Amino acid sequence: MNISGNTPILDNMGDNNTLFIFLPSPRLKLLYLTYLFFVVWILVMPCLMVISIVFPPVASLSVSVTALLVILLALTWTRRYLRSIRYHFTAGQITRYHGVLLKKITCISCDQVHRVSARRGPFQRLFGLATVDLLTADPTISSGSRTLLSIAGVEKPKELEQMIDACRTGKVAG
User: Whole-angstrom Cα distance, residue 1 to residue 171?
Assistant: First the structure.
């Protein structure tokens, strides 16, 4: 079973060990683009305005074109990175696949997960998203727990918690 934006779809990958495949919500792209918009508006635009006033037009044009290319690269990178993220829930293990140039795989055992915590920032609430943290007990840290894995772009954190419980028991929750 595949879950994209928390809407179940059939899994055509043919992997019998996989209970669920979780994909972040498509609204996560809008959230990241909103972050990029504010970075451009607050940091890049004022710098470009100062450069256009202080330096001659040839220099300010070349800096502006470079800034535009960097912004377009960030847009493309964000889109490709979000397409690369997927979480496979198998009996007893959660695996995260992500990365554009460097493909990274993170595997954690469901036995290590002692607590599931959801957090929502102001923009995440605006887009109806949450970040779910999978925590383990760690007495060496003052908070008493350490984050094993963070899952961003979750629309329904309670359903994801049920998926994690299904991963622990090896049974599909339904």
Answer: 13
24-79 per-position pLDDT tens digit: 999 999 999 999 999 999 999 999 999 999 999 999 999 999 999 999 999 999 99
Rg for the chain (alpha carbons), in Å? Answer: 20
Residue 101 tokens read as 């140039």
Q: In whole angstroms, give the CA distance from residue 48 to residue 29.
A: 26
38 backbone dihedrals φ, ψ, rounded to 5°? -70, -35
Whole-angstrom distance, CA of residue 161 vs CA of residue 167 = 10
The class that CATH gives domain 2-24+85-169 is mainly beta
* In the chain, where the domains are located: 2-24+85-169, 31-80
CA distance 44 to 40: 5
Q: Is 6 left (phi over 0), alpha (psi -120 to 50) or beta?
A: left
